[in-house]
Amino acid sequence: MMGLFFDMNDGDFCHKISDNMYMDSDGDMMMKMSDNMGMDMDTGEMHFLIGDSETKIDEWE
């Protein structure tokens, strides 16, 4: 399980580094707030996230 998310706000991929912390492809830290939302730890902005190892592709159709 990779724990890979796609950030809909800025187009970055986020990699899971702990249960609720992610690092995006720019090196910014993000805290997972819910299944599909995360908070940028630098700016405090909320981001919409899609896809992780637990989400099936069929759920998005």
Task: Give the tally of structural domains.
Answer: 1
* Residue share in helix: under 10%
Cα shape: globular
Provide mean pLDDT, rounded.
Answer: 81
Oligomer: single chain
The CA-CA distance between the termini, in Å, is 22 Å
Count of DSSP helices? Answer: 0
Taken in chain order, the helices and strands follow as EEEEEE
Strand content: 35-45%
**What's the total count of β strands?**
6
Strand-pairing-aware structural class: mainly beta
Task: Enumerate the spans where pLDDT stays under 50 for 5 or more consecutive residues.
Answer: none
Main sheet: strand order? 1-2-3-4-5-6
Largest sheet descriptor: 6 strands, antiparallel, barrel
Q: What is the gyration radius calculated from CA atoms? A: 11 Å
Task: Show the helix and strand layout.
Blueprint: E1 4-7, E2 13-16, E3 21-24, E4 29-34, E5 37-40, E6 46-50
Antiparallel strand pairs: 1-2, 1-6, 2-3, 3-4, 4-5, 5-6
In brief:
0% of the residues lie in helices and 44% in strands.
List keywords for this structure.
single chain; 61 residues; mainly beta; 6-stranded antiparallel barrel; 0% helix; globular
Explain what this protein looks like in three dimensions.
It is a single chain. The chain is mostly beta strands and 61 residues long. The protein has one domain (18-60). 0% of the residues lie in helices and 44% in strands. It contains no helices and 6 strands. The chain has strands at residues 4-7, 13-16, 21-24, 29-34, 37-40, 46-50. It has a 6-stranded antiparallel beta barrel with strand order 1-2-3-4-5-6. A hairpin with a 4-residue loop joins strand 3 (21-24) and strand 4 (29-34). It is globular and about 25 Å long. The model has no long low-confidence stretch (mean pLDDT 81).
